[in-house]
Amino acid sequence: MPDSLLPIHIRDLRLSKGDRALLAGINLTIEDPGITVIMGPNGAGKTLLLRCLHGLIKPDRGQITLGPLAPESSRDQQAMVFQHPVLLRRTALQNLAFAAPELARSEPQRLINALAAVHLADRADQPARMLSGGEQQRLALARALLSQPALLLLDEATASLDPASVLVIESLVKAQSAQGTKVILISHDQGQARRLADEVVFISDGQLKEQSPADSFFSAPRTPMAKAYLAGEILL
User: Fold this and answer.
1) Given this model, what pLDDT does residue 3 score?
2) Which of 22, 197, 221, 230 could form a disulfide with 37 if both were Cys (CB 3.0 to 4.6 A apart)?
């Protein structure tokens, strides 16, 4: 079981571009294990928040701690899967070997098992960039999970994928969460959020609008903006 990076504390997180506030003083605490789904309209700041958690973006102001660590000090205990996977010009198996060279030397079967877990064992020697979009995303998830991260971040990792790939990825995410990995994912898909979320964080205009257990959020959202979002209204 991976070491915990909980609780996650975010205090007065601010990020601007010119005169525009992209993150406008977010205060958020994530304490519970399981799966937290971040939802909100386009441009709400969801991806920026995830990248700040992963240490890829330094905010203008504010503080993030993951357990006792700052984001940049916890990177080796985290993994992130982006909406558009970045893969090397190598085979599927070589992509995993590059990400986990020690495993490739000492336990090469684990790499094969990782491919099998995402239904790509028969694609091991195929160039990764020749895989379909769904297969590439499954490979990116397999690569992320090799390190058994304490925190797994997913930014719209199943957007526009085929249903089979969505099913594989969701199943793996749930299984990884059950093994003790804290999962935080962004999704616009309400069906997916209902299937996966233990907790929902709703963000709009760079601000935290609501944080609640998933059942409560979907049955009785507290804010008018969350109600409108769930009703399918366009939020500006």
Assistant:
1) 74
2) 197
